[in-house]
Design goal:
about 260 residues; 8 helices; 7 strands; alpha/beta; Rossmann fold
């Protein structure tokens, strides 16, 4: 039997209890990784662990508040106690709130920034001693098309995702001497269960009209990209910002060309 691309690698996935994060966990488990789901939603994380176990994989749920450095430190300590090493970090947790810029409060700004930017900072800082000691490792940040192009009513989220892209590039430069690859994926709207439940058909149709490939993204589209950047196939790629968005951010005025 051929081995998976991530055979015996230990991969921490924040936000892995649902949506894109859960899809990444499933994909990585199928490729042989030991999965650690770092999420504040412990029940959801355990459910994903059960699904992975049923498929023959291995997963551990570690309750983690990525906005709290103490919680992050305890979670990474638990991972090291269990597996003695860490090979991959996927910073996937995120949250958004749509408001005109003049209606955002300081509290709104801080909550959105802390989840989307401070969280990846805390997690990355916590795993760095292990990756540096190993002289290897992969960090993949999940940003957004909103980190490339401004979108209405996303001032806080867009600012945080722009910051995450900047963090990706600076980490890539600083950590290259340790053979640590740091890259970033920028999805457009992905048809997660939450998106399908919380948005209207009119909103989804509007998004599709802006995407040249003429559809919303699938969770698997992001999971496959994350797999590539986390595997040895991407050993000479670092500091890359990869739009996985059906062409959304490559044109000034997107229009569906699907037939």
């Amino acid at each position: 039997m051929s081995k998976g691309k991530l055979e015996n690698k230990v991969a921490i996935v924040t936000g892995g209890a649902s949506g894109i994060g859960a899809g990444i966990c499933q994909e990585f488990a199928q490729q042989g990784a030991q999965i650690v789901i770092a999420d504040i939603n412990q029940a959801g994380a355990e459910q994903v662990c059960d699904e992975i176990s049923q498929g023959g994989g291995n997963a551990l749920a570690v309750e983690t508040n990525v906005t709290d450095p103490a919680s992050v430190g305890a979670a990474v300590g638990q991972v090291l106690n269990r597996y003695q090493t860490i090979d991959i970090l996927i910073n996937c947790v995120g949250w958004n709130q749509l408001k005109p810029v003049e209606e955002y409060t300081t509290e709104d700004w801080e909550v959105i920034r802390s989840l989307n930017l401070d969280g990846p900072w805390h997690m990355s800082q916590a795993v760095l001693p292990t990756l540096i000691n190993n002289r290897s490792g992969k960090i993949v940040n999940i940003a957004s098309g909103s980190g490339i192009l401004a979108q209405p009513h996303m001032a806080a989220y867009g600012s945080a995702k722009h910051g995450l892209i900047g963090m990706t590039k600076t980490f890539a430069v600083d950590l290259a001497r340790y053979q640590i690859n740091v890259n970033c994926i920028c999805p457009a709207t992905i048809a997660t269960p939450l998106v399908m439940e919380c948005t209207t058909e009119a909103y989804r149709s509007f998004q599709i009209e802006r995407i040249p490939l003429g559809r919303l993204g699938h969770v698997s589209d992001i999971a496959k990209a994350a797999l590539f950047l986390s595997s040895s196939d991407a050993n000479w790629i670092t500091g890359a910002i990869l739009p996985v968005d059906g062409g959304l951010t490559c044109c000034a005025v997107a229009q569906s060309i699907a037939t």
